[in-house]
Amino acid sequence: MYNKILVPIEFSHVDTGINAIQIAKKLLNKDGQIFLLSVIGEMPSSVEVQLSTDWTSNNQKMAYQTLAKIANNEGTGLNVEIMFGHAANSILSAAETHRADLIIIASHKPGLSDYFLGSTAARVVRHAQCPVLVNR
């Protein structure tokens, strides 16, 4: 059983994220915590200067509301966090920050270079300092 489980959720694959939450709830100690994380990729600076100054704030707010809705639908006690940056690096950083003792990450439709795992999942598995459960 685990005390702190990190569950990264990609909004384009919410169903696999919800499945990961269900797995996390089964593996969680009675007083444990589940951290839901979504990472918003950074915009190239050439694109970002053309967007309104409110774009980043609004995008973060919408992402937080979406993740909070998922958390609310899945039960109480789920912590929600939104980060900007590279997905794998942000997941690894959040795992360290929260001192996660398990990461449950979804993997889907890999490319040729990462045939068995998606590229984000593969990077997390290779570099995480805690166990990683890959859910397909």
Write the layout of secondary structure elements.
Layout: E1 2-8, H1 14-27, E2 28-40, H2 45-48, H3 54-74, E3 78-84, H4 87-97, E4 102-106, H5 119-127, E5 132-135
Parallel strand pairs: 1-2, 1-4, 2-3, 4-5
Helix pairs in contact: 4-5
SSE order, one letter for each helix or strand: EHEHHEHEHE
- What share of the residues lie within helices? 40-55%
Total strands: the figure is: 5
CATH superfamily: HUPs
What would CATH call the architecture?
3-Layer(aba) Sandwich
The total domain count is 1
Q: In this structure, how is the largest beta sheet organized?
A: 5 strands, parallel
Q: Which regions have little confidence, pLDDT < 50, spanning 5+ residues?
A: 112-116
CATH class: Alpha Beta
Q: Give the neighbour order of strands across the main sheet.
A: 3-2-1-4-5
Q: How much is the radius of gyration in Å?
A: 15 Å
Could you describe the 3D structure shown?
- With 136 residues, the chain is an alpha/beta fold.
- It has a single domain, classed as Rossmann fold (3-Layer(aba) Sandwich), CATH 3.40.50.620.
- The protein is built from five helices and five strands, in the order E-H-E-H-H-E-H-E-H-E.
- Strands 3-2-1-4-5 form a five-stranded parallel β-sheet, sandwiched between helices.
- Helix 1 (14-27) links the parallel strand 1 and strand 2.
- It is globular and about 50 Å long.
- The two termini are 21 Å apart.
- The model is unreliable at 112-116 (pLDDT under 50).
Descriptive keywords:
Rossmann fold; 5-stranded parallel β-sheet; globular; 136 residues; 5 strands; alpha/beta
